[in-house]
Amino acid sequence: MAGRQRLSAAERTLVVLAVLAILGFAVVLGLRLATAPETRPPADAATAPTTIAGTADPSEPAGEDLSGVAFDFVTPSGNIACTIEAERALCGIADFDYDVPPAEAEACPGTLGHFLQVDADGAALVCDTSGQELGIDADGVPVLDYGQERTTGAYTCTSSEEGVTCAHDPSGHSFTVRRAAYGLS
User: Fold this and answer.
1) Cβ(98)–Cβ(79) under 8 Å?
2) In b/e form, how buried is each residue of 106-126, taking b as 16+ CB within 10 angstroms?
3) Mean pLDDT across the stretch 24-50?
4) Is 28 helix (H, G, I), strand (E, B) or coil?
5) On the chain, which terminus has fewer CB atoms closer than 10 Å, C or N?
6) 3-state SS of 107-147?
7) In terms of DSSP bridges, do strands 122-128 and 62-64 run parallel, antiparallel, or are they unpaired?
8) Are 91 and 177 in contact (CB under 8 A)?
9) For the chain, how big is the Rg over CA atoms in Å?
10) CA–CA distances in Å: residue 134 to residues 26, 130, 142
């Protein structure tokens, strides 16, 4: 077999890693397809999801440690607090009654439902991997009264008796959150 060379140890390692990466991708894809939410409507309206119309892309939530979030404002009820950063608007809600999508909850290695964000790419629930319960300490945090809004950069958040809506103004992406429901658009 003239002209054929054997692969070096580094080349063999690279081939093995590439094969493992492809297999890993196939397994993840298979699991995501197997846990995709059903598209048929619920049999009973009382069991319908508690999200607002126009909600969620069922993609996997981003996971991050949110224990160090410094909120810019809190609602008069003290249940919702938000921060507007250069790349996103993020709100935390201490107490809520809505359900989160089971597939997203299973994909989250932490707590899902307490944080929502909007950025130029869209709105989403945020997986909090801090391992801590969200408690909003409103001491020293300005109150954004009902009917008021705050705009910083490309983001506007509005407080109302129905909750908080934050939007990425150039794209129109937004979320709304209140104790009973949340919505993503």
Assistant:
1) no
2) ebbebbbbbbbbbbeebbbbb
3) 43
4) helix
5) N
6) HCCCEEEEEEEEECCEEEEEEECCCCCCCCCCCCCCECCCC
7) parallel
8) yes
9) 21
10) 35, 10, 18
Cα separation, 176 vs 167, whole angstroms: 9
**Residues 133, 121: contact at Cβ < 8 Å?**
no
Residue type, 45: A
Q: What percent of the chain has pLDDT over 70?
A: 71
Residues 6 or more apart whose CB falls under 8 angstroms from that of 153 comprise: 84, 86
Quote the longest CA-to-CA distance of the chain.
81
Name the nearest CA neighbour of 90 among 111, 63, 119.
Answer: 119
Query: 47-61 pLDDT, tens per residue?
Result: 333 333 333 444 445
Q: Dihedral sign, CA of 52, 57, 60, 65?
A: negative
| 185-to-14, 35, 48, 123, 150 alpha-carbon distances in Å | 42, 23, 19, 6, 19
Q: What is the DSSP letter of 45?
A: G
Specify the pTM.
0.67
Residue type, 7: L
